[in-house]
Specification:
globular; alpha+beta; 16 helices; 13% strand
Length: 485
């Protein structure tokens, strides 16, 4: 066996020593940061693992359940441990959360989170921060305005009608689905749209290729004003980007425009489809609510209502609101402070040493959680029946809900502030269009015990079965055509 070159050995030893020294430095830096953290005296759960922190509790239980338990035990402002014992801040104080969501120059997505999300959706408006985000948002806002969504509603209804007994291919695992008396064991899985292919790079290349093709077509259409009738999102975005209202130096590059395509697919399509899935789950658990909703929808004389007609249906609106409150597709998000700051509080908290605090001192680099689902299900805000699906609660919204800093509906589902969901109007009308068609045409019944249904989150929270842990995302349901009397 040949001897290694002495110079190479020295280089490897030097490299090993450098890596070791860097690791030691980072470790000591982490220990010092934790020992001197302004959050060190906050109450919170015990750290069960120096490696995983409290993450295993979060991973192994339904979304927001551990946090809700911690709030009961330690109060609305607390700390918990992330990987390698790094402290994370958690607060249910709506004044503090409003401060975080409004000050996007201070509180941004952590770099690792942006990197991982960017691998899936690219450099679109969901990922970028700072001036880049402001630029993209300014150009994109007109494409998501009420006028544009009103025009898109016809497309929503046309696509919704494809989910009907005449379009069996959508549910091809149920050959007798549309018969008058389906076999009791005929089941269909409500579409939950599994997460993107693990080969992320290949998927990105495919989406980029398709995006570039769509962009070329949209630009040609936009340039030919005499024949331009396209109403799809990308065409609307191209029109907005080419508008004379947008100075040339503020326009998005072709690369930035194409980067929005996977954002439309993942952030828009995935969240709305998942929310619709949970709406059908909730309706299958409350047949009187399902019946009441169907009666309202069947009273509409047209099969293709406009956006204004959909929004004028009060019980449909309540069902959508209650679904998005109780089953928010994205259960939580995180932010990291880019500078030292103090979070204002509605309610002072007492630390472990008995000291009362009127605000929370936050150090640069501190990570905190924005608890979307926990706020939406807070008993302090919504009452003791907060964990229950009750559309009628929207007939009289609790006063406390007005403090929630959300862009829509007195909830955090679409977040709030400058980084609130740009497509929330799109999502709401699309979801109403789907439910309008589905609930008018079909009756939904859960095909497994409700205790068997669990939630697991990978960007969005999807249904899984406890009895089939390796079965992937699924929600087995009996789906029967509704026979009008």
């Amino acid at each position: 066996m040949a001897m290694l070159d002495p110079v190479l050995i020295q280089l490897l030893q030097a490299l090993g020593a450098t890596i070791g020294a860097l690791g030691l430095y980072k470790g000591l830096q982490l220990i010092y940061s934790e020992l001197t953290s302004p959050l060190r005296d906050l109450p919170g759960p015990e750290n069960p693992s120096w490696i995983y922190g409290n993450f295993k509790e979060i991973w192994n239980e339904a979304n927001s359940v551990p946090q809700e338990r911690w709030v009961q035990q330690h109060g609305t402002t607390l700390k918990y441990k992330g990987l390698f014992g790094v402290t994370r801040l958690f607060t249910m104080d709506t004044k503090a959360l409003n401060h975080v969501l409004m000050n996007t120059n201070i509180y941004q997505k952590p770099e690792p989170a942006r990197y991982n999300l960017g691998r899936i959706v690219g450099g679109g408006v969901l990922v970028v921060e700072g001036e880049k985000h402001k630029q993209q948002r300014k150009v994109m806002n007109p494409a998501f305005g009420p006028t544009q969504i009103r025009e898109l509603t016809e497309i929503f209804m046309a696509k919704s009608e494809q989910v009907s007994p005449d379009h069996e291919y959508l549910f091809n695992d149920l050959p007798r689905w549309y018969e008058d008396d389906p076999h009791p064991y005929d089941q269909s899985h409500v579409p939950t749209f599994a997460i993107l292919d693990p080969e992320i790079e290949a998927s990105q290349k495919t989406m980029t290729r398709i995006g570039n093709q769509l962009l070329r077509e949209s630009k040609l259409s936009a340039q030919d004003k005499s024949t331009s009738t396209s109403r799809d999102l990308l065409s609307l975005l191209v029109h907005s980007n080419m508008s004379t209202d947008v100075p040339a130096h503020q326009r998005m590059s072709d690369e930035d425009v194409v980067a929005q395509v996977p954002t439309f697919l993942v952030a828009g399509h995935e969240t709305t489809s998942t929310a619709t899935t949970w709406a059908l789950f909730a309706l299958s658990q409350d047949i009187p609510v399902q019946t009441k909703l169907r009666e309202e929808l069947l009273a509409v004389e047209t099969d293709r209502p406009t956006m204004d007609e959909l929004n004028a249906l009060p019980y449909l609106d309540m069902v959508v609101r209650e679904t998005l409150r109780l089953h928010a597709p994205v259960p939580a998000t995180i932010r990291q402070a880019t500078q030292d700051d103090i979070l204002p509080l509605n309610k002072p908290f007492t630390d472990r040493k008995g000291v009362v605090h009127e605000g929370i001192r936050v150090r640069k680099g501190q990570t905190l959680q924005v608890p979307i689902l926990a706020i939406n299900r807070s008993k302090e805000i919504w009452g003791d029946d907060a964990p229950e699906f009750k559309p009628e609660r929207w007939e009289s919204t609790p006063e406390a809900a007005a403090s929630i800093p959300g862009v829509w509906g007195n909830m955090l589902t679409f977040l709030g502030g400058p980084r609130s969901c740009i497509g929330y109007r799109f999502s709401l009308v699309e979801m109403k269009a789907l439910l309008f068609t589905l609930v008018r045409a079909f009756e939904f019944e859960l095909a497994v015990p409700v205790e068997d249904v669990d939630k697991k989150s990978t960007i969005v929270q999807r249904p899984v079965l406890k009895s089939e842990p390796k079965g992937g995302n699924q929600l087995p349901m009996f789906i029967r055509p509704h026979v009008r009397v």
